[in-house]
Amino acid sequence: MIAQRSTAVAGRSHVEGFFDAATCTVSYVVSDVATGSAAVIDPVLDYDFRTGRTGSRSADRILRYLEECGLKVAWILETHAHADHLSAAQYLRERVGGCVAIGEPIREVQLLFKNIYNFEECFSPDGGQFDHVFRGGE
Questions:
Q1: Distance, CA of 82 to CA of 37 (rounded, Å)
Q2: Which one of 59, 75, 110, 117 is CB 3.0 to 4.6 Å from 88, fit for a cystine?
Q3: What pLDDT does 1 receive?
Q4: Regarding beta strands 37-41 and 72-77, do their DSSP bridges make them parallel or antiparallel, or are they unpaired?
Q5: If phi over 0 gives left and psi between -120 and 50 gives alpha, with beta otherwise, what is residue 34?
Q6: What is the pTM of this model?
Q7: HEC states along the chain?
Q8: Phi, psi of 85 (to 5 degrees)
Q9: Cα dist. 1→55, 68, 125 in Å?
Q10: Distance between CA atoms of 102 and 37, rounded to whole angstroms?
Q11: Local confidence pLDDT in tens for the 138 residues of the chain
């Protein structure tokens, strides 16, 4: 994972991208320069297909960046259900806090997956696995 070029937004926000070559995805840290508050977007949990093991190298790079910049995580945001990588949201939340959130269409995805993959009856496709589910326009 390599950091991409930083971008200032409206002089007050800062966006830092982290490219993951294994999945060809980018995770982001968006921070408010004035307050030091940050959101992490689509963090990658490393997965080795050959061994079936997960790792935290990609997420640890984000953790180092957060620490170096003195940022406090308010949100860990998932933009969608990821077929391209595993999420490091829980790993990050355990280490730096923040609310893990996603948009309400996740409920449709969960219901679809529950039916396709025959999830246990106790699995509730209501987004309750997240701290917050954003409604449209929120």
A1: 25
A2: 59
A3: 43
A4: parallel
A5: alpha
A6: 0.87
A7: CEECCCEEECCCEEEEEEEECCCCEEEEEEEECCCCEEEEECCEEEEECCCCEEECHHHHHHHHHHHHHCCEEEEEECCCCCCCCEECHHHHHHHHCCEEEEECCHHHHHHHHHHHCCCCCCCCCCCCCCCEEECCCC
A8: -165, 165
A9: 13, 17, 32
A10: 19
A11: 444 545 555 568 999 999 999 889 999 999 999 999 999 999 999 998 899 999 999 999 999 999 999 999 999 999 988 777 899 999 999 999 999 999 999 999 999 999 999 999 999 999 999 999 999 999
Q: How is residue 105 written in tokens?
A: 């269409």
Residue type, 54: T
The residue type of 23 is T
Structure tokens at 117: 């993959």
Residue type, 133: V
Residue with tokens 């993959």: 117
